[in-house]
Amino acid sequence: MLPEKLKSELTAQIARVDHPREMAIDVINALQDHYGYFSDEALAQAADLLGMSPLELDELATFYTFIYREPVGKHVIHVCDSLICWMEGDENLVAHLCDRLGIQMGGTTADGLFTLLPVCCIGYCDRAPAILVDRQVHGPLTIDALDRLIDTLRENHS
Amino acid sequence: MTATYPQVLLKNRKPDRITTLSEYREAGGYEALRRVLTEMDRQEVKTRLADALLLGRGGAGFPAGIKVSTVAEDAPFPRYLVCNADEMEPGTFKDRVFLHAEPHMLIEGMALAAYSIRASHGIIFIRPEYESAAKILEREIGIARGEGLLGERILGSDYDFEIVVHRSGGRYICGEVTAQLNALQGRRPNPKQPPPYATDKGLWGLPTLANNVETLACIPHIVKNGAQWFKDLALTPEAAGTKLFCVSGKVNRPGCYELPLGIKLSEIIETCCGGMKDGATFKACLPGGASTGYLTADHYHIEMDFDSLKKARNRLGTGAVMVFDHHCCMVAATLNLTEFFARESCGWCTPCREGFPYLRDLLWRIENGQGEAGFIPMIKTMCRHLWKSYCAFAPGGVASIESLLMNFEDEVMAHIEGKGCPFKK
Amino acid sequence: MPTLKIDNREINVPAGTKVIEAAERLGIMIPRFCFHPALGSVGACRVCAVAFTEGPVKGIQMSCMIDAQDGMVVSTTDAEAVDFRRHVIEFLMLNHPHDCPVCDEGGHCLLQDLTVAGGHGLRRYRGLKRTHINQDLGPLVQHEMNRCIQCYRCSRYYQEFTGYRDLGVMGIGSRVYFGRSAPGMLESPFAGNLIDICPTGVYTDKPSRYIGRRWDYQRQPSLCIHCSLGCNLTASARYRQVVRHEARPNLEVNGHFICDRGRYGYAYASIADRPRQAMAAGTPGPIVDILAGAREAIQQTVEKHGPGSVAVVVSPRSSLETLAVVKEACGQHGWTGPAAAHTNRQALNRNTAVSCLRPELAVSLAADTEAHDVLVIGADPLNEAPMLALSLRQVQRRGGHVIVIDPRGVQLPFDFDHWAVHPSAMGAILQALIQEIGGHRATAPDTPATFDITKLARRLNASPRPVVVCGTDILTPHEIALAGDLARALRRTHKVAGLFYTLAGANAFAAALLHDQPVSTEAVLDRIEDGGVRLLVAVEQDLWREFPDRKRLQAALKRLDHLVVLDYVDSPLNREAGHFIPTQPLYESGGHWINQEGRLQAASPVMAGGEPIEITGGSDHPPRVFDRRIPGDEPLAAWRAVAALAGEDEADPAPQLKTALADFHPAVNLSTPEATGQRIDLEAIAHDLVESGPAPEPAEDDAPADAVVLLLVDWTFGTEPLSAMAPALTRMEAAPVARLHPDEIARLGLAEGRPVTVSLNGNRLTVPVQADPRMAAGVMAVPRHHLLEWQVFGETRVIVKRSQLKAESE
Ligand code: SF4
Ligand code: SF4
Ligand code: SF4
Ligand code: FES
After folding, report:
1. Residue B304's closest CA among B259, B256, B271?
2. What is the architecture of the domain spanning C700-807?
3. Which of C29, C447, C496, C641 is the most exposed place for a label (fewest CB within 10 A)?
4. pLDDT at C692 over 50
């Protein structure tokens, strides 16, 4: 269920713009933040708020990198695998993360803390190899720095 | 290093924070806007832009002055100004650096561009990875509004202009302007071939001018200092202005540098970036992002401006210089780029949607010892055909593959004949 | 009119023609996937590439994206263009399953054709294929996503063309997926067209799955007879069974599409309980004997009671051939009738519409799409004539405007204005509109202020191309005439005002030409009741299902000396008949129909008839029983049977048909083949049948204030009697409910979801109540649903007092 407060905030935001559709991504993001991912329930609610059909919204939701239509962990780690990060060894980072978290690329840890996903160039090539965790950039990363980052994220939850 | 060249956009760049509104004003910011609103007419702004030969900094290099004047005088209202802060081109991060340094310069540039076409709505379309910049922009827009620099009756004139920040869901194709307009309207961001042109029927069927962050940021300076001043900034006669170059890869100091157009590639690498990393040898670079072709050592001293690169059958693109040293396998690098394009193809047209996965497969086989000599003509033909795709994405995407075969065919053959990557041995 | 050269042949085409279409006029079929004449060009598939060698455009370009221009020189055989097209096809085949031999689209697949034609024969790609999971899209359309070539036709058709929003494209890149957000029934009643427009086998016809290859079928041009629009289709039969309909393009009628009622409504022709055996008083016999028996019964009745004691009712769905022979027979013998409408109102409605349809006003369904403003009066397009809704959708897409004045909760798949006015107010509104259009200020009738007649009149007057659409189901003749007046009034200010009526029955227009003063079944029943009529011949008119007073019908039948029934559907009526003669549906008889705009159209026979092998052989093939004759081949074309009843024993009915058709009506000329497909001569129809003077006060104006008007109405699925027999459509039908405005529900003391019983003259109808805020106040709409015994009140428009409504507790 969508909290009344969030719902009325979004309704107000949508009411302020000329065309509700232009708010689609913002509404999706807000519901995704609330539910942890853009679930079917969220899809139906967002469609309702925007006066769009679920399909129309799904057409958008499934297009974009940062909209998750399937459950993801509390922290989504996107490892940049485009040219510069690749040159600087993103593959090592991925191998290390898979090893440490015990998951494959695309997987989520059993405790639901982490999901590992690739991402195209995130515009931090001057800080390669770089990753995004919950849309926060980290880089340039060494294996050690990565370990510390994971440790901190873990600790925050225990 | 860069101090020897005049700084315009990044002159007041601070290491860890933005230039505040008062700092920006102290340095002469919003002066151009005030002058335009009180002393100059619209046409004058357009004339200056045209005379300054300001070419779009987002990658395509289209003359900004011409674009502004394609909005018809009698076109309907409201009109829109879109600032493209999507910056999804691999290797490119200049707008990010700029937005974290001079948000007000962009706001002023947008207000000026909007004024010249009488647009009342400004939208900054920004990629999700730049959330911190989006927050800065929203805050500073609020501050500017509080100071009467945005909103209703700007600086006491009868001119109203509002800016909102639109966050993208994140896809490379959203940087393509027609796709971006679709995205802004809550539609699938597939490109849309003109006609109609955006300046005629853009957002919601209304006139829309779209420009890159850097392009818009140049406008206050051109208005204030004149076209000739701007042209004189460049080192080569045909070029005009400075350019934000972002250098990455195998150099000692990757980063974003404001340099005059026409500066030599060698100077960027050696003087600004402190030379090649670990004493390696320069092998090649992509001069302007993932959708440009490789420049080899033959072009090490090329003058980095739109014309010179065009002459070298390449493109300045976004000015994102990605540097490879002699340890780099160009097949693997090209495979990486092709993977990017296969993943980011919007899926609208056949050659691009299916061609990139196909090319990726062939390159993967070459890189991993399953290559055959017959692949080379296949790849060449396919690249040629990908030029006949719907939008500029695919021609950009094959640029690296075509230049791989043009410049590094020996290296490709070595993979095929040696049944594997020579760099992995 | 640009002139260009394609493959060295010159052609002159209208401005705006795309090069791909110009080539088609020369008979050069440039490959295409995304381009479709109804959907236009989008340049997505890139398979239509050709070389432009001279003229304003140069190089390899997409022929669907470029307007033909003067001086263009185009080569479709240019080596680079051919190689590019071959590559495009190779690209499209990367992920396409290699199962043409067992694929249900094989043989009528554009992808298959173009792959072969394009010269892509050997697979070079060594990567894996990506696969998709299919969705259940409901009973009509089968989904097989792996075959998709991403041409975007389906999503564009579904969303842009039909205006529905539950099917589209998801994902990105080579993983784009066409379907619904979640599996489930497609919402559009035009979804079946996906099957026709998908250039490969992603959407296939579900009911006919595994029945045969298209080349196995007997395929013939046919017509839809499930409403009056007369959409063109191609019918397919296999093993003596009608198995599929496809839309047949007719750019003057249905364009490229048909509705799902039309596409899937055919099952009645082949179902197991279709009567195929002639009977005398329930005893089967050879058809010749039964016909002779019936003829004898008629003769005896005539001898005893005079020729007027024999009456004929015929269906407005029957072919022109049947109507003509029936008319001839009645005329010749002095029989009563033929009646081809149930009630007096319905008969008058139809004839009024036909007589108001002046040639200068008549517009076709296709021409409707070019209207700028359409005023819909007393019609519910989606429910009564579905393809009309699709035409109106195109009006709206082109920037036009649709206004519906109707008491029902009319829904359309696009934005439109709805004036939900009470039926009794319709006439006054129309009159006021006509006055305003003529420039006279009208005294505003008693309607809510939101219905601004002056504004509407101004809008119509200012419209470059207004069209008046008028239904004939719920209105009165007066209003129907007023709709004609309205169009005529607009015509005074416009060269191109149009008028478009919908009628009840696929051949209702022809039925209107039977008499100047129409006869109704109601009137025939009067005569039966007063003893004037002693023998009734019902020709393909299933009174049991369709006459709105079953009790009265039954009583009347009891009074008859004799009943003769000719029909192709099973009905209790058939069992009441002294003589029953099975007839052929149009798939066997063929014939002509005149649609609601007066267009004469032909359907070819598709098959010879006979009981489907599925029934005779229990799906076993070949049948194990051998006979000279096909089992169940007795049914006759109705016109033959009628000719046999009316004519001489053993006479050849063909000349009789010829005379009957020639004498049918001066407006209908079948003597030249060119007449088919054209509008008949509307000029030759008497236009003075109805006076459009001041309103004959409708009785219900005197109705007490606490009354509601009960309308028994059409629904897209479930009410039209023939299509309601199609098992494929069962799941598409909504359960019957009585729709009322929520305030009305409260006012009447009813409860949403609970049944209400309407009792009138000792008859009762019980049906659950559903709130519909789009309904007008004072109105209750109930579908003539086959699951509901709605045939109780003798009319489909009656006044019900509050005291006659009872809320049921369950
Ligand atoms: S070239 Fe690629 S990105 Fe451009 S429209 Fe075609 S599929 Fe989309
Ligand atoms: S499903 Fe058919 S119509 Fe739709 S995109 Fe795929 S091939 Fe085209
Ligand atoms: S609109 Fe009427 S005639 Fe056309 S296909 Fe549907 S039911 Fe048949
Ligand atoms: S038919 Fe022209 S691009 Fe598809």
Report:
1. B259
2. Beta Barrel (2.40)
3. C29
4. no
pTM as predicted: 0.96
The parent domain of residue A142 ranges over 75-155
Under 8 Å between Cβ of B34 and B144:
no
User: Nearest to residue C213, comparing CAs of C96, C98, C102?
Assistant: C102
Residue of C nearest to B190 (CA): C172
CA pair distance C283, C292, nearest whole angstrom: 15
Alpha helix stretches (DSSP H) within C315-422: 320-333, 344-356, 365-368, 381-384, 386-397
User: Under an 8 A CB cutoff, do C181 and A63 touch?
Assistant: no
Identify the domain containing residue B413 by its residue range.
330-417
Cα–Cα distance, B80 to B86 (Å, whole number): 17
Per-residue pLDDT for B425 more than 80? no
pLDDT value for C690:
56
Count of structural domains, chain B = 3
Do B154 and B297 reside in the same domain of the chain?
A: no
Among candidates C139, C554, C510, which has minimal Cα distance to C322? Answer: C510
Q: Looking at A68-141, list the stretches that DSSP marks H as alpha helix, in order from N- to C-terminal side.
A: 83-87, 90-101
Other CB atoms within 10 A of residue B415 CB: 27
* C354: nearest Cα among C228, C232, C465, C495: C228
- Maximum pairwise Cα distance, chain C: 87
Minimum-distance ligand 4 atom for the alpha carbon of C151? 4
Mean pLDDT, residues C619-624: 64
Total structural domains within chain A? 2
Quickly state the pLDDT bin for C125 (edges 50, 70, 90).
very high
**Residue A80 within a domain:** yes
Domain check: are A87 and A17 in the same one?
Answer: no
The string of pLDDT tens digits covering residues B121-142 is 999 999 999 999 999 999 999 9
The two structure tokens encoding residue C313: 């009712």
Report which residue type is found at C468.
V
- Check pLDDT > 90 for residue C689: no
**C-beta of residue B323 within 8 angstroms of C-beta of residue B250:** yes
Element (H, E) at B276: none
pLDDT at C810 over 80: no
Task: Pinpoint the alpha helices (H) of B194-255.
Answer: 213-225, 227-233
Return the residue of A nearest to C159 by Cα. A56
Query: Average pLDDT over chain B, rounded to whole?
Result: 95
A87 contacts B324? CB cut-off 8 A: yes
ipTM over 0.90? The verdict is yes
Q: pLDDT tens-digit profile of B95-117?
A: 999 999 999 999 999 999 999 99
**Ligand 2 center from residue C208 Cα (angstroms):** 20
Structure tokens at B129: 């990875």
Q: What is the pLDDT of residue C458?
A: 93
Return the CATH number of the domain spanning residue range C3-93: 3.10.20.740
- Reference A127, options A140, A144, A142, A143; nearest CA is A140
| Atom number of ligand 2 nearest to Cα C147 | 7
Distances (CA, A) of C106 to A148, B323, C202, C212, C234: 59, 52, 12, 11, 18
